[in-house]
Write a structure and sequence with these properties.
heterodimer, A: mainly alpha, B: alpha/beta, 18% strand, globular
Chain lengths: 469, 157
């Protein structure tokens, strides 16, 4: 029964919502389109939480349902003119979410990451950068964590974790059976990857989803994001390192990471190195050349395709599922906003009486909790449109930094959910190594989640004090 | 067109020459490399890898001084840089223990006995190289003359 419930609920509950009379929602002047958006939103929530279908499939379903029942080219009976119909959304806008600039930014990131892996820039950099950390397990771990975090700022957290764990596995096999150091090492990689993703807009999909809501006067450039993102990553990494080395001290005195290979010097490899450096520089110097991060992201796509660095076959291996997952989130936000539901609903609920700090803390804690049990991106997809609408309407938030602070707090919280093997793919990979117990992962994840939130609040307070945002 | 290599390893010069002669059919499309020891082969692999050339197939004798063929093939099997490289052991002097190791650790793709039938060797190499090219996602049309058609159809399906 329990098994069937996860299929039945996402169908039944949205259907009930569709069939209820409009007056039963307590929102004055609720239109048919808005009611349908509520149904889609509830379906998306149930599908992402219960996972009857893959999470990216839920995203596609959102977009297709929006096209069918709330677009200007949808099914005939959904468009019957009546005073209560509301605003139908342009089908081009909904389909456009598949190619929104945010998706293109990520595609550019994917191209960089794929080329770096293919031409082994990642492994070779890891080899060179690990050398100065010597052979003392404590410092080797610090080195591993720093490198993992830096890579996961530009590559997917999962790919970075897989690469670093493949370097680490042969070494872990040499540890004695009851050496706690093994636990520390196996955990250090996913922890660093999860934290590192926070550092740049392309580090992890929730950041991209946040960019969708950071527009106009709230716009944050690539470089500006790194100005606060990177110090946050540094502080969190240091705390994580201290935590891991105290909780799980290694008894082994010396470890030796042996990474084979040398830097490739073929013309193609050199093109990869140059493109990589130039793209990152262009991202950081957004103000100077007039191109924003989205436009810059298209440069590596063109260069790598031209020089056959990313071939036809490589193209098929791009994580389209991740891109679609984000698209669905954007489409959900578009529907809430363009149908007018977001504004109507917030007017109807007396949020204004709520203390703004309570809202910031409440929303980010809810996000952290959800992110521990479901996909970070799906969490961000669900919470950010709501939070953005709320933030825009609450004037009492302004003294605390306004909408931006609320959005960033929730975005950071989404990346801090890492206490269970199911929390993130990097956690699942580390758990699969067999060196870590769920209890140990939970201990580290919970502590880092709470500390992370506190540091996020402190950072946002500081940024607001110096009026950076 | 990507450069694709086939490496032959045998410590006896005459045997090596005769393998290479049998593979002459491929020499206008693929690069046939000769090594007289496992050590020499490992050095060559480093060099080819640095130039980002493909190693489609490694044909090795087993009994050689310093490092045996099975040891060489196991090392290649475990090196992530040569993921997908096909391995053929060509030997008359492998004990059952060696053979077990070769299958379990080196994950051999094929085993031929000395003295070999040149046609059989040619056909085997054809099939293995076809598998490598399709599995690595290389453009098979560039090499189609020298590939094994049935294998190609099976893998492309």
């Amino acid at each position: 029964m329990k098994k069937q419930l996860k299929f039945i609920l996402p169908i039944i509950i949205p259907l009930i919502i569709l069939l209820l009379p409009a007056s039963s929602f307590g929102i004055e002047g609720l239109t048919f389109v808005e009611q349908r958006v509520i149904a889609i939103f509830v379906m998306a929530t149930l599908c992402w939480v219960l996972e009857p279908i893959p999470i990216y499939a839920t995203s596609v379903l959102i977009i297709v349902l929006e096209l069918l029942i709330i677009s200007d080219k949808g099914l005939w009976f959904t468009k019957v003119d009546s005073p209560e119909l509301g605003h139908l959304i342009s089908h081009k806008t909904i389909m456009g979410t598949f190619a929104s600039p945010i998706i293109m930014l990520f595609l550019g990131g994917f191209f960089l990451a794929m080329a770096a892996t293919k031409y082994r820039l990642d492994v070779n950099l890891a080899r060179v950068l690990l050398k100065p950390f010597g052979q003392n397990p404590k410092y080797v771990m610090l080195g591993l964590m720093i490198i993992t975090a830096v890579f996961s700022m530009f590559m997917s957290n999962t790919a970075t974790t897989a690469m670093m764990l493949s370097i680490l596995t042969p070494v872990l096999a040499l540890f004695s059976k009851d050496d706690l150091g093994k636990v520390a090492f196996a955990l250090s990689v996913p922890v660093a990857a999860n934290i590192g993703g926070i550092g740049t807009p392309i580090g992890t999909p929730p950041n991209a989803v946040a960019l969708k809501y950071l527009v106009d006067e709230n716009n944050i450039s690539f470089g500006a994001w790194m100005v606060f993102g990177v110090p946050f990553v540094v502080v969190m990494l240091f705390i994580a390192w201290l935590l891991l080395t105290t909780l799980f001290p290694a008894t082994t005195k010396q470890i030796n990471l042996n990474i084979k290979g040398r830097f490739l010097k073929t013309p193609k490899a050199i093109i990869v190195y140059i493109t990589f450096i130039v793209t990152i520089l262009l991202w950081l110097m957004g103000g100077w050349h007039g191109m924003n991060a989205y436009v810059v992201a298209m440069i590596p796509v063109a260069v790598f395709s031209m020089f056959k660095i990313i071939t036809k076959e490589d193209l098929k291996r791009i994580s389209w599922d991740v891109l679609w997952l984000v698209s669905g989130g954007i489409a959900l936000g578009v529907a809430l906003d363009k149908s007018g539901l977001a504004k109507n609903a917030i007017d109807a609920i007396p949020f204004a009486t709520l203390h703004p700090l309570l809202l910031i803390v409440g929303a980010s804690v809810l996000c952290l909790l959800m992110a521990n049990f479901m996909s970070h991106t799906a969490t961000a997809n669900l919470l950010l449109p709501l939070v953005a609408a709320l933030g825009a309407s609450m004037h009492s938030l302004l003294p605390y930094g306004g909408e931006v602070v609320l959005i960033l707090a929730v975005t950071f919280a989404a990346s801090l959910g890492m206490s269970l093997p199911i929390s993130t793919p990097p956690n699942a990979l580390a758990y699969a190594s067999g060196h870590v117990q769920t209890k140990q992962m939970a201990k580290v994840g919970v502590v880092l989640g709470i500390i992370g939130l506190l540091i996020t609040y402190a950072m946002l307070y500081l940024l607001n004090q110096i009026s950076f945002l | 067109m990507e450069k694709i290599n086939i490496i032959c390893v045998d410590d006896e010069r005459e045997v090596l020459d005769s393998v290479v002669r049998d593979l002459d059919y491929f020499s206008d499309v693929f690069n046939i490399e000769e090594c007289e020891s496992a050590i020499e082969c490992l050095e060559l692999l480093e060099e080819l890898d640095a130039n980002q050339e493909h190693v489609a197939l490694l044909i090795s004798d087993h009994v050689m001084p310093e490092k045996s063929g099975v040891e060489l093939l196991t090392e290649v099997e475990l090196d992530p840089r040569f993921l997908g490289t096909k391995k053929l052991l060509l030997t008359g002097l492998a004990t059952q223990a060696d053979t077990i190791k070769a299958i379990n650790n080196a994950k051999l793709d094929n085993f031929l006995e000395k003295v070999w039938d040149p046609d059989e060797l040619l056909q085997t190499v054809k099939e293995l190289v076809t598998e490598y090219i399709v599995e690595r996602g290389l453009d098979y049309q560039d090499y189609i003359d020298k590939l094994d058609a049935p294998t190609l159809y099976r893998l492309l399906k």
